[in-house]
Amino acid sequence: MKRIPKLHFTQINRFVSQIDQTGGLDSCWNWQGFIGHTGYGIYAINGKNFKAHRISYFLANGRIDDELLVLHRCDVGSCVNPRHLLQGTAKDNSQDAVRKGRNTKIFGEQNGNHKLTKRQVKDIRRMCRDRVMSQKSIAKHFGVYESTVYYIAKDEQWQI
C-alpha cells in the first residue's frame, strides 16, 4: 500500500469538506467525492490517488501499519467514519466477509462470467478420457485456457 504523506491543513479541510457527516458520530460518513469502480472513495494528494477511508483512518489515528489494510466494520466502501474503520490483515478481511455472507462464490452456470455450460464440461471430460484430442486442442476448440481443461479433466473444477 502507498504510504499517505503528511497533509497540509488546506488538504485536510478539502478532504473533510467531501464527507457527509449528517447522520452523527455513530452512522456511516459517506464520501461525497469521487468513488472508484470498486465502491471506495478516492482522494488525490499531490497528484496521487489514495482510498478515502485510509486517509480518514490516518487522520484519526496518525499511522497505518505498512503490513495491514484498513477494514470497514460497517461494510460500506464509501464510509470514511474512523469509528467504523480498523486495521487488519487480508485474512481478517476475508474471514469477516465469509462471516457476514459477502464472500459467496458462485460456480458453474450460476456465475454470470461462466464460459462453459454443463454439457460442454461433460464433453471436455469425455474428450480427455477418450483421448479424442490433446488438452491444448480441446482448450482451443472451447475457447478456454489449457489449464481450465486440465482442471476440468481432473474434476478439480466444475463439479457436476
- Written as H for each helix and E for each strand, in order along the chain, the element string is HEEEEHEEHHHH
In terms of DSSP E residues, the strand content is 5-15%
Largest sheet: 2 strands, antiparallel
Mean pLDDT equals 89
Which structural category fits the helices and strands? alpha+beta
Number of individual domains: 2
The first-to-last residue Cα distance is: 40 Å
Gist of the model:
By secondary structure, this protein is an alpha+beta fold. It has two domains: 9-99, Homing Intron 3 (I-Ppo) Encoded Endonuclease, Chain A (Alpha-Beta Complex); 108-153, no CATH class.
What's the structural blueprint in terms of helices and strands?
Layout: H1 9-16, E1 19-20, E2 30-31, E3 42-45, E4 48-51, H2 52-61, E5 69-72, E6 85-88, H3 90-99, H4 118-129, H5 135-142, H6 146-153
Antiparallel strand pairs: 1-2, 3-4, 5-6
Summarize the structure in words.
- It is built from 6 helices and 6 strands.
- The protein is α+β, with helices and mostly antiparallel strands.
- It has a two-stranded antiparallel sheet. Strands 3-4 form a two-stranded antiparallel sheet. A two-stranded antiparallel ribbon has the order 5-6.
- The radius of gyration is 23 Å and the shape is elongated.
- The model has no long low-confidence stretch (mean pLDDT 89).
